[in-house]
User: Fold this.
Amino acid sequence: MVRVDLSRRAVLAGAASGVLLAAGGARAQGAPLNVVATTAHVGDLVRNVGGDRVRVANLLGEGVDPHSYRLTRSDTAQLMRADVVAYNGLLLEGKMTDALVRVASAGKTVFAVADALPEELLIAPPETEGSFDPHVWMDVKNWIAAAGVVRDRLSARDPAGAAAYAANAARHVAELEVLDAYARRVLGAVPETARVLITAHDAFNYLGRAYGLEVRGIQGISTESEAGLREIEGLVDLLVARRIGAAFVESSVTDRNVRALVEGAAARGHKVAIGGELYSDALGAPGTYEGTYIGMMDHNLTTIARALGGEAPVAGHLGRLAQAR
Ligand SMILES: [Zn+2]
Assistant:
């Protein structure tokens, strides 16, 4: 199993050079911790748990694919200026790992939320040869566990804030519990024969496991792998044989393969609709409801449930989804 525990390395590197406690020395008394997160998911979690004790910047914006993203020189400079660097891990940020190791060995607090989850929460698909599926946020229960990771890491870095982090985490977890219950309710209402989720890449295995859907991505776990004609043909067979009526596109991945699938099924006399656009590895626009973790999941759950014949309010579980307007 491949797990790169940068956080532990960072602690070791910091302790060895005696800079661990001094790392925040440049920060003014009472000023918020300057946190840089890779994905907007991780940034949102740190913002919720950190509250006003943190100031969070995300490296990856709306619609950006973390599997293929390479850090720019200014990203690296931003990482080196941060007090804390938070990332997903489990090789989601496949092209950034070297830079994150460098930042960690410079004595920064660097931690990965997914790497720190207990193994029993993780999925190790046979085709990834021993590494875990990094898309852990698609199961809300996993994200609840991740909130605990962030609370503990921030508290270790800033012990004076421990009570605030614990209170913030508890409040956010309560919101996530409501979201998880909504997921169970609306996806539970999808008819048995329609419980198949076909997407552009394999980002939804955790969602499928948690909420009882069979999940098939056209590309693999990483968008770095190419989907072959044979994969597309195989999925067309499945769509036709099972009379599956919808496939989904993703905001951070090209829709080319999904459209090929729809055309392939149409050529065999079976109509497949595009069930909507899902957020897989990026959130919606900053400042919008869909730009938060809860809004993103609400959008996905509501879109999937409605397209597959379940029942869900068009405006989602809090009445806030943009698609209703
Ligand atoms: Zn992905």
